[in-house]
Write a structure and sequence with these properties.
Length: 70
Amino acid sequence: HLTIARRVLALLQQHKAGDIKVLIGGIIPEEDRKQLIELGVAEVFTPKNSDLAEIVQQITAVCSEKGSSE
């Protein structure tokens, strides 16, 4: 997930689409989660925060942030 996130974020920047928010989910160690956030991933979902209502709320918040793509 770290390698893929780096590549996706780099490609978005390369194509002048760096304002597109990237969200990732899966079984991701906490240390990797922190690194993903530092890389620029907007949100990381894991089984620890897999409540559907909470995920929807977080996605809505990320998409509502100033500068988010439509």
